[in-house]
Amino acid sequence: MTEPLNDRQLDALFDTTRERGTMDAGEAFLARLSADAAAEMPRRMEAPPSRGAIGTIWAGIGGWAGFGGLAAATVAGLWIGIASPAGIADFTDSVLGETMTVSFDPTAALFETEEG
């Protein structure tokens, strides 16, 4: 039946079914159907094993990919922090065109408040 039924064909099909009366599926068929349905029901899944604290942290940083990124950033930060920044200073002087000095001494501001 690849073609859709029109109303007349559908009415004829219903009339034929009404004339035959109710059809009993049979006990054997219903038992097989119930057994197949029970076999296809989803089963209870076991809980995955606990990872522990280190496994949770490892998963939190993204596993090997996240650890690789953190390691690369750490090595780059150490290299930039330890290496002489003379090349960086020359580059920024050429880009900005002027030299600026910033003091990070918190006690310097205490002495600037006096008038004199």
Q: Can you give a write-up of this model?
A:
There is one protein chain. The protein is mostly helical. The protein has a domain at 63-97. Helix content is 63%, strand content 0%. The protein has six helices and no strands. It has helices spanning 7-20, 27-40, 52-61, 63-82, 86-96, 108-111.
Mean pLDDT value: 81
Helix and strand run: HHHHHH
β-strand percent reads under 5%
- Overall geometric form: elongated
Overall SS class? mainly alpha
Total number of β-strand segments? Answer: 0
Query: Over the alpha carbons, how many angstroms does the gyration radius reach?
Result: 40 Å
Separation of the first and last Cα atoms: 106 Å
Low-confidence stretches: none
- Let me know the largest β-sheet: none
DSSP helix fraction: 55-70%
Figure out the total of helices: 6
Per-chain topology:
Blueprint: H1 7-20, H2 27-40, H3 52-61, H4 63-82, H5 86-96, H6 108-111
Organism: Pelagovum pacificum
Protein name: Dihydroorotate dehydrogenase
What's the quick description here?
This protein has helices at 7-20, 27-40, 52-61, 63-82, 86-96, 108-111. The chain is mainly α and 116 residues long.
Using brief descriptors, characterize the structure shown.
mainly alpha; 6 helices; 0% strand; elongated
